[in-house]
Write a structure and sequence with these properties.
This protein has about 450 residues and is of the alpha/beta class. The chain has three domains: about 240 residues, NADH-ubiquinone oxidoreductase 51kDa subunit (Rossmann fold), CATH 3.40.50; about 90 residues, Roll (Ubiquitin-like (UB roll)); about 90 residues, NADH-ubiquinone oxidoreductase 51kDa subunit, iron-sulphur binding domain (de novo design (two linked rop proteins), Up-down Bundle). The relative contact order is 0.12. It has 16 helices and ten strands. About 40% of the residues lie in helices and about 10% in strands. The chain is globular, with a radius of gyration of 23 Å. The strands form three sheets. It has a four-stranded parallel β-sheet with strand order 3-2-1-4, sandwiched between helices. A four-stranded mixed β-sheet has the order 6-5-8-7, covered by helices on one side. Keywords: 4Fe-4S, Flavoprotein, FMN, Iron, Iron-sulfur, Metal-binding, NAD, Oxidoreductase, Quinone, Translocase.
Amino acid sequence: MTLTSFGPANRIKRSAETHPLTWRLRDDGEAVWLDEYQAKNGYAAARKAFAEMDQDGIVQTVKDAGLKGRGGAGFPTGVKWGLMPKDESINIRYLLCNADEMEPNTWKDRMLMEQLPHLLIEGMLISARALKTYRGYIFLRGEYTTAAKHLNRAVEEAKAAGLLGKNILGSGFDFELFVHTGAGRYICGEETALINSLEGRRANPRSKPPFPAAVGVWGKPTCVNNVETLCNVPAIIADGVDWYKSLARDGSEDMGTKLMGFSGKVKNPGLWELPFGVTARELFEDYAGGMRDGYKLKAWQPGGAGTGFLLPEHLDAQMYAGGIAKVGTRMGTGLAMAVDDSINMVSLLRNMEEFFARESCGFCTPCRDGLPWSVKLLRAIENGQGREGDIETLLGLVGFLGPGKTFCAHAPGAVEPLGSAIKYFRPEFEAGIAPGNVAPPLAKPIVVGA
């Protein structure tokens, strides 16, 4: 997946001053290996961090820069790092890179790993120094075979150059890094399910507390960060807090830049590094080129299948967490999907909910039973065999599976697009209700002990 450009994007030259994540990319889309990466100032930030900064200074710099997680949750990275124990007697700690990019319509981390593998390694090296972790793992989506090949080669190059392994840069600090490919489960994007899978266990989320910073991999303190998050660290260390904050547009509460994109029947589907605060309209019209001839924009999702649908009139929202929240949903991964006017929303939602139902770990009842129930109802409505009351039942499921009602955030993310689709396109759901087809009343609830 190469970066593409359209309209004003053609006139914007990527540079280290404005595009910290992507300025080193090659025009031919090939990977940037160690010699070229170092010629483009690669590992200069790591050398600065090792020579001029102590561990607490690195953590404070990342915290002051306002870096937030880029995997979808948006938790402040420096705050997360600060949760790691200060006790010097704890000499076994782990850093995990969450590269299990299973969110539909999202491919940003894939691009970074395939084309800039050393950027991720440098980000992990600096982060390991800050967190005093001696071993790191890149937990990679199993289907990303090219990324696995490139990361493994880059790890070997870094080892040979003394940038990984023992006594890195003569500092006395040791850090080993391993690429671990998963078996292809969406739930592994949840950090504790990822930890369980890495340990060889079933990929179920863990109860929190304790949080991974206290009890993580094999019971040891662990920090889990997303690929794009870690790739921001070198630029922050190299160029400073004030510069990093200046990258975002006025009005944005999120700092720096973000990999954003658009998929669907747009003229120029692709991925771009843009400042937080850019409007969705700029992303859609100036970069993605608007809809292809013969199609109209019906709806769009701002950041993956687990975010709510929005309408064309919402395109003036700014692309940052608070800006998207103002129009009723979440920023998510920042890679948007355009839904054209030929798509039936019931069919689209049935397809989405089938995916989410299949990817549930099955641990908690609302998710295990509620998502297949939604699929059953949606399939009936799609086939014109829906019953009166089915829409209300679907809306009830949206509430029952919402935030705080399930063990992890899988189910709330799964039903968010369902609730928004019914909100904006209810007539399409009503059209699938067969006249006179009334749902039977629910069975009398069983009272325990009666």
